[in-house]
Design goal:
It contains 15 helices and 30 strands. It is α/β, with parallel strands linked by helices and about 625 residues long. It folds into four domains: about 190 residues, Nucleotidyltransferase, domain 5; about 90 residues, BRCT domain (Rossmann fold), CATH 3.40.50; about 100 residues, BRCT domain (Rossmann fold); about 170 residues, Lipoxygenase-1, CATH 2.60.60.30. A six-stranded mixed beta sheet has the order 3-2-1-4-5-6, with helices on both faces.
Length: about 625
Amino acid sequence: MSPASAPFDLPATGDYARDWALVDVETSGLVARRDRVLAVAVVTIGPDGEQTGEFSTLLDPGCDPGPVEVHGLTAERLRGAPAFDQVAGRIGAMLQDRVLVAHNAQFDYDFLAYEFARARRWLPVSQRLCTLALNRQVDPPTNDMKLGTLAAHYGVPQQRAHDALDDTRVLAGILRASLREAARLDLPLPLVSCPPRAESQFTPKPPKTPCAYRNPGRMAPGGPLLQGMKIAITGETALARAELIGRAVAAGLNMMTSVSRHTSVLVTNEPTSESTKARRAATEGVPVIDEPTFLRLLADVRSGTAHEGTTTSASTTRPAKGVRTTEPESTPAPPAPVPPAPSPPVPRQRTTPDHDLTKPLTNRRVLVLGGDHTDAAAARTRVVELGGSAAVNLSTSVTDVVVLADGEKDRRMSRITALQLPVHTADWLTSPTATTPGTPPSRPKEPHVMPRGGVIDLPTSSDTPAPTPTPEWHLTVTWAPQSTCEIDVVAFILDEDEQVTFDEDFIFYGAPESPAGTVRLLTGGPAEQTVALDLAALPPATRKVVVAAAVDGPATFRTVGAIQIGAAPGTSGSPLARATLDAATTERTMLLAEFYRRGPLWRLRAVGQGYEHGLATLARGYGVDIAD
């Protein structure tokens, strides 16, 4: 009996009994908006665990198949296969009214969504379940969470890796085992709602080239313009807008689509305009000039200061037409004011070595229940001081439970009792025992536990002559499931002035990917979001990527409780480092982590700094224009 056809030994009701459509795609690359699906397989399973359907096919994408060494699908092998639009109807019928299941489900979902859009169809998926996110909740003791690793852990046979149909059959076995573990722990499934996506959402904007120069601030009365100034335009222009912008960009100016307090000058031929940009310029005191003045100043743009780390060749250091190369006679405008929102960097602290046996809770994972926010935060801080890791949810890696006031009323207590986990009072944290019976097995290497303010150097690749960071990192943010509020995870791509280069460097639920795709926001469930970073592809001017969380609505982090972050290399890695962060009681936004450069290396800092203001104020502090 194949893993796909084996019945599920699970409760027949609730979240665990659904109609499932297990999916795997092989693709010509990793970017859904650009690359194509080469092979697709779908296996459908009913609530009783019985397989109800199976379909797989190769596809002719009409383009280069990409990394043949990975998927083995050559152009010759794909020749004569159907195009996606020829099978879209059959695939859609199998997905209809079922939960889409995939390993790293957002990847498969996005590729299918683009293919359906190209075929002028809707992707008929309203919910998806990611087995990668589900296993992050279960937290099995594996080195990573790749499909093959989980298959070996759960005893699921795998015959041909990167074969769509075999991967889907393996996925069925992993889903079966993962759901069984979720049921044993009484975990809510991380189901993600998938509203219909219009075709226009799949039309990517062309990547905007970051300006090579730092923003020198406001333009002085009468000029001149300096390279790096942030320029916005509003209203009708005599010269075509695209040409005007092209000339400005060629001269080294940073053309913006909105106005903020960091804007150097607004260009408009309508001084009494009531446009949003004009009103914001008046509010912020941004200088305003007309188009003829702007064109005159464009003929004599003064040299600016290049971003730190930006290298230019002989050909690129030649000034653009209209750029003056001598030093300006007048003093440049002062830099933009420092934003009030972000706090100064937390001083670097050395964290406890992984194998420091003088810490009695080394390699132990402790779940704290009950207590008010202050007492619970103090207990979790004490766990870390003792060498342990503070959990925010129940999982197979939890070794101990500390129950504070009213903690026995937590809905998880009955399951904790059934699992026979050691339960302690707060006094146990004064002098915890080194060992307790029934400890779950640990990983070969446990994640490094970072305290608030802790810093680690990200490992470098050994395959290059000079040290280079592991290219892709995923920072996964999790919290206890909420019924009264939602959490938004966001990221800011910052230069050496702690400012975004342009508004698109603010990554959030409404714009989940930077124009170049170097930073992306991924949703794994209602209590988990991930920021994926391609450190190797970030522009040299990028000095830092800040990840933050905001509580939607009037609620505060007193309601939410602790936030956990885990940093892992690649898509399916287990966390290299983990931190549990507690804001104070009244904060609505919190800086979670910073990825920042130090020479050729990147470092990760666990921040944990909260603010009472909302997300809009935090974004404005980093130079993002947020409409009121």
